[in-house]
Amino acid sequence: MTGGIITVIEAVPGFLRDRTVRPACVDADPDDFFPEPESVAAAAAVRVLYCQGCAVYGKCLDWALSQPVDKLHGLWAGTNQGMRRRMRTQRAP
Ligand code: SF4
């Protein structure tokens, strides 16, 4: 994949525009975050390698869960689409 993690999404999340914090994935290979398939194992690897210690983990996860599940691809905050779908269901009132 070319273009980097930020350019592959239409709207850059606010937490990625904040220059006062440095996401752990800022210099990562985008292929790590957009694998085919977006398996649970790939999500776990990203979570361990990058997201666990990321300064914006909570913001990233909240943003990912606020997006339409079927339109957001990638392993945001160490989650894949299926995981986000389940988390959204669990959060629903
Ligand atoms: S939580 Fe993970 S995907 Fe989100 S900004 Fe941090 S390292 Fe990147």
From TrEMBL:
The Swiss-Prot or TrEMBL record describes its family as follows: Belongs to the WhiB family.
Q: What is this protein called?
A: WhiB family transcriptional regulator
Known InterPro entries for this protein?
4FE4S_WBL, Whib
Domain of life per record: Bacteria
Compartmental location: Cytoplasm
Needs which cofactor?
A: [4Fe-4S] cluster
Q: Which organism is it from?
A: Micromonospora humidisoli
Domain named 4Fe-4S Wbl-type is located at: 24-86
Q: What are the UniProt keywords, alphabetically?
A: 4Fe-4S, Disulfide bond, DNA-binding, Iron, Iron-sulfur, Metal-binding, Transcription, Transcription regulation
